[in-house]
Each structure stands twice: as C-alpha cells, then as structure tokens.
Amino acid sequence: MFAIRHFSLSMAGAACALALGIAVPAAAQPSAKETRQAHNVLVDYSTCVADAEPEITRAFVLTDGADAARVDGVKRLFDSRCMGFNHGKLKMEDFLFRGALAQRLIEKTLASDALDNVADLEALNATYAGEGPAAQGHTLMYRIGECIARADAAGARTLFATRMGSDKEKAAIRALAPVISGCVPAGQEVQIDRARLRFGLATMYYRLAARLTGQGAE
Description:
Layout: E1 2-5, H1 11-19, H2 32-52, H3 54-61, H4 65-69, H5 94-109, H6 133-151, H7 153-160, H8 167-183, E2 190-193, H9 194-212
Parallel strand pairs: 1-2
Helix pairs in contact: 1-2, 2-3, 2-5, 3-5, 5-9, 6-7, 6-8, 6-9, 7-8, 7-9
C-alpha cells in the first residue's frame, strides 16, 4: 500500500527556496508554490550542468556516497554559471540532484526503446550508501524505481517529460499508480512523495539503460 504526498522541503529544498529569495522558517511547512519553485530550480540547474558536463554527470549518476565524491571533476557539477538569476549558493540533497541529472541524461541521450531488453538484465538492487533512516529511504526508492522502470518504461518517460508540480505530472503519476502499488514491498505501507519517486525512478532508469549497453557500474 502506498500514498503519494507532497514533498516537504528538507534543508536541500530550503536552500533552493532561499536561492529564490523565499523565506522558509525552519519549522514552517512550505507552500505548494514554494515547493514547486524549489523543484524546478533544481531541474533547471541540473539541466544546465548536465548539458555542460555530460561525462562527469554520467559518472555521478552511476555512483553514490563516498564513491560519488571521488568522481573525476565532480566539482564542476557545482557551477555558479548555471544559477542564472538565482543568486546565492545552492545546496542540494545528492539523491534529488542525482535524479534530476539522470532525468536530463535520459531526455538528451536515450532513445525511447532504451529499456526494451530490460527483462534480460539481472536486478540491480541498488543500495544507497550510508546508514540511518534517510539512506534506508533512498534505497527503498531505488528499489521501487527499478521495479517501475522495468514494468512501465514508457510511463516513466511520460513522467520525465512533464514539468514538476504540473497537472501533467500528476496525471502521469496517476497513470503509473497501479505499477507503483505493485512495486511496493508486500506488507509495507509507504509514504511516497512525488519528487523522490520521480528522481529515484530517473536514477534507476538511467542505470538500467547503462547496464544494458555494458557501460554501467558493476
């Protein structure tokens, strides 16, 4: 059983909002507009960076944790030139940033049939590096994301083509609801926010495609 909920701005989301000049008190719940703005700042920034540094972006998407910090040239993914009019230092949770980068790589480099042979591929069963509830939650989203990508690659691509917070995004997630429900581990009741669903799915979609071409991390 699962429920889709709105994403609550974490420290990463608050930083996005502050970059836009939005005041977010530590204990305050962000409005839907603030959440949408923060997400779209993240997507726009990630699009700019992925276009500027595709190889570094690819290496970052295929790694997690300490390994990601060792990606050659990774500092170039934090490029102030991509901030545009959003002055200030943008800090992003790496799980969300990685997914936003993956989404752009999918859009720009993968054909619509990239996962046609995914049934021939063994499960990746990605584990997010680290300990504690956050790492466990990210791992769960990777597992659910891989399941969704395998079950409905076309539906995933439809989702990636939508603007975050839009009616089209909501419709794409509703269309995926039966698949999402089937991908939730049996006996678990999971609260899934749209941002983590989308970005976890994007990361795993890209990793599956990379593995199919023999270019993914082992």
